[in-house]
Structure formats: C-alpha cells, structure tokens
From TrEMBL:
Name of this protein: V-type ATP synthase beta chain
Domain ATP synthase A/B type C-terminal span(s) in chain numbering: 355-455
Function: Produces ATP from ADP in the presence of a proton gradient across the membrane. The V-type beta chain is a regulatory subunit.
Keyword ATP-binding: no
Source organism of this protein record: Vallitalea pronyensis
Length: 476
C-alpha cells in the first residue's frame, strides 16, 4: 500500500489529498496524525488525482504537513455473527455495551448488493404489532417497507418501543426465528437511554440489535448507521433464515446529515437545500427490504421520520412516500387530545395490506371491516364539518350516531395503553362492536352474510368491558 504524506486542504470534516492513484469511491482511508493517533475516513469524491475524504472522528488536530494517509482498497465493512443479537453498537457497528468485541463469522460491505427483482418473493404474511390502528387498518406485511410520518413532540419514540416489544410473527413460524434491528440516528443521550432501558426492562433485548448514533457523534457516522443496520439485517435474514424487523429513527436526521455533507462538498442544492440525489439515496436504503424466493428469511422496514413543521409535502416525507408501500401518519391534534398512539387513520395506508389479510391470513371479515371502518370514519369528518355550520343539535339522528361513533372510535379503537398488546381477533371484534353504534343499513361496505355473522348493536358497558379485559388478558 502507498502511504501519502501531507494534505492539500482541510475543510470542516473533510480533507483533500492530491496526487493519489487508483482510488475508488467510498474506499476506506487510515489517517495517522503526528501524535500517532489513528482516524478513519471514507472517500466521498474523486476528481482526476484529487480525492476528498470524510473523516469520521473530525479533523481537529490534523496537520496539513505531517499527516500520513493510506488507502485500504475496500469499502467500510461490519463484522457479523449471530451472537450480535442482544448487543448495543455505535453508528459504525462498534460495541458500546461493555461486553467486549464481536468475534465475526463474516464481514460484509455496508453498502450491500442490489436485489434482483426477479429473485424477490411477493410479501404475503403479516406481522402483528398489537396496535389496533396498525393491525386492523394499515396491516404490516412481512417484507414490506412501511414508514411512520410524525412530528416534533409527538410520541413516535414510544410507538417505536411498543412495536419492538410487541411485534411477533403469526402462523406456523417460530418466534425464535424473529429479530429486531433498531437504528437510532442523531438522538439525544436521554432518548438513547430511554430506548436501552425500555428494551432491557421488557426482556426483549436478547432479540434486538441496537445501533445508536448520538446527536454529538460525527455527521458522517449518521449517514453510515442505517447501512450498518441493514447489512446486519441482511446477514440475519439471508444467512440465518430469520425474519427481521428493521426500525430506523429518525430519517429526518439522516437526510439533514446528507444535506450537510453535500453542502460541504460544494454540490448544487435542490429543494430545501437537500441534494438532488436524495431520492436515489433513500431508495438505496428502503429497497433493501423484502424477501427472496430461495431463502426463508425476510426484512421488513419501519422508517420513522419527523416532518418539519408537520408538512407532509416536505421533500423527506414526499420522497419517502414515493419509494415505500404506504405510510402511518401521526396526528398532532389527536396527541393534544391525549390519545395514544395518535394515529390518524384516513391518510394512513398499507399498499400491500390487501394481499396479506382475509381468509387464510387473518380472518375472513378483515378486508370488509377495514373498508367499513375507513368509510364510516371518513363520513364522521363530513358530519363534523356540517355540524360546525348548522350546529350539532340540528343534525339528523343518523348523523348524531356518526358523531358518537367517531368519538368512541378514537377513544377505544385508536387509543390504547403503551403496555396494551391486542391480538388480531380482539382488534377485529372491537371494530365490530364499534360498528354496532351505526344502523345496519349504513354498513354498505360489508356483505349481508358477514353482517349476519358479526353485526350486533353496540352496548357501551360491553364495549368498555372488552377493552379492559383484553388489556388484562395480555398482562396475565
């Protein structure tokens, strides 16, 4: 290997070397300082014989005259073994839990390999999260990428923890074959501690691999963190035939880090200052979810992002929505009403849901009750708009029933405790009890045979008793 002495330029977290030969994009670099300290870098730009290197630990203390650089001839790799389950790592995949180094069975390039579309298996089976608004109305399908659109101050962290604690496979698959890869980017120390403590106290840590990139960690590490997490997921899914749920939070921090690096490179900005290639960069992450037809494992993604100013048309949620298969939208209005999780069901959808529910998957009435709940709740919004004009007292009896349905739907179906794990049948039964508030002739999205089997008028005491019993049953 050739060792280069001196630097042409030092700018922010970037160093520029001149006179380099045979250097590749994203190649790793060892940078040795005067005092013998060794830092890692990655090539992010090449022009003729000039290479721009992003230094992971920053450029403080680096001398442009005496620094020695050596190109390693390979991209960043992460050491992997099945014993990585239960470990907590930093954004570069280095252990930070005090349990020692990982003894690898393999090392993998964090950039992964593209999946041949022909080799993909179409997702069918669902993952039960125990959250009614997700399981009943935006069902998560194994192998899907289903983002959560949130906002600052909305409890998406608590929702992420609840999904990790409650998510499980259904059907004949063994739960031992299920794992969670959790990657947090740009989080504060107290949030990182909350994640660790929650997983430890609930006893799920042994099936979780955690990657933590803190707010004071280098920006370039934030760009690497989701790639390390997805490489780990690919190893567990396609080498050990495990079903892996990957939760990435917060993708807004990732995109802002991407913007900062792009700006430091002097690239021409696009919308809101983000680089023009952000769409393809996000796609290189999201498209690493899926199933292969010659492997038993799967990778399911739940990216979580906070929408700046709650603007769903912002470039980050906008581009994410183009790439992924639906979205779960959290509402600030519901959060201010004290409803948890504050999932607003009308703009939320799961595009793969229709092929993973119904007879043989969940229950034969699931597609129809989901359609009916959507339709009825949508009509509630129309009635609310009418009531704001003419007054609630002037509404018809049927419209008053819709107003009652809307309130109880939010209070009993959408809302649930942070430790409440509802099974799929319980979610569907609760949906039928709430539809009993409405006259039977209003339920025009359901077949008569299904209505005969499941519809019955709503009784408030019975509905509330069911709600509490399901919570107690899970605790037992």
């Amino acid at each position: 290997m050739i060792e280069y002495l001196g630097l042409k330029e030092v700018t922010g977290s970037l160093v520029v070397l001149q006179g380099v030969k045979d250097v590749a994009y994203e190649e790793m670099v060892d940078i040795k300082l005067n005092d013998g300290q060794l830092r890692a870098g990655r090539v992010i730009d090449i022009k003729d014989d000039i290479a721009v290197v992003q230094v992971f630990e920053g450029t403080t203390g680096i001398s442009s005259a005496n620094t020695r650089s050596r190109f390693l001839g390979k991209a960043l790799e992460i050491p992997l073994s099945k014993e990585i389950l239960g470990r907590t790592l930093d954004g570069l995949g280095r252990p930070i839990d005090g349990l020692g180094d990982i003894f690898p069975d393999a090392s993998r390039d964090i950039n992964g390999n593209p999946i041949n579309p022909i080799a993909r298996e179409y997702p069918r089976d669902y993952i039960q999260t125990g959250i009614s608004a997700i399981d009943g109305l935006t069902t998560l399908i194994r192998g899907q990428k289903l983002p959560v659109f949130s906002g600052n101050g909305i409890p998406h962290d608590a929702l992420a923890v609840q999904i990790v604690k409650q998510a499980k496979l259904t059907g004949d698959d063994e739960t031992d074959n299920f794992a969670v890869v959790f990657a947090a980017m740009g989080v504060k120390n107290d949030v990182a501690e909350y994640f660790k403590r929650s997983f430890e106290e609930s006893g799920v840590l042994q099936k979780v691999v955690m990657f933590l990139n803190l707010a004071n960690d280098p920006v370039v590490e934030r760009v690497v963190t989701p790639r390390c997490a997805l490489t780990t997921a690919e190893y567990l899914a396609f080498e050990h035939n495990m079903h892996v749920l990957v939760i990435l939070t917060d993708m807004t921090s990732y995109c802002e880090a991407l913007r900062e690096i792009s700006s430091s490179k002097g690239e021409i900005p696009s919308r809101k200052g983000f680089p023009g290639y952000m769409y393809s960069d996000l796609a290189s992450l999201y498209e690493r979810a899926g199933m292969l037809n010659d492997r038993k494992g799967s990778i399911t993604q739940i990216p979580i992002l906070t929408m700046p100013n709650d603007d769903i048309t912002h470039p980050i949620p906008d581009l994410t929505g183009y790439i992924t298969e639906g979205q779960i939208v959290l509402s600030r209005d519901l959060h201010q009403k004290g409803i948890y999780p504050p999932i607003i069901v009308l703009p939320s959808l799961s595009r793969l849901m229709k092929d993973g529910i119904g007879e043989g998957f969940t229950r034969e009435d699931h597609p129809q009750i989901a359609n009916q709940l959507f339709a009825s709740y949508a009509h509630v919004q129309e009635v609310k708009a009418l009531a704001s004009v003419i007054g609630e007292d002037e509404l018809s009896d049927v419209d008053k029933k819709y107003m009652e349905f809307g309130k109880i739907f939010e209070d009993l179906f959408v809302a649930q405790a942070k430790d409440e794990n509802r099974y799929m049948d319980a979610t569907l039964d609760l949906g039928w009890r709430l539809l009993g508030i409405l006259p039977r002739e209003e339920l025009d999205r359901v077949d008569e045979a299904v209505l005969d089997k499941y519809y019955r008028p709503y009784h408030e005491d019975e509905g509330q008793e069911h709600h509490l019993n399901e919570k107690d049953q899970d605790k037992d």
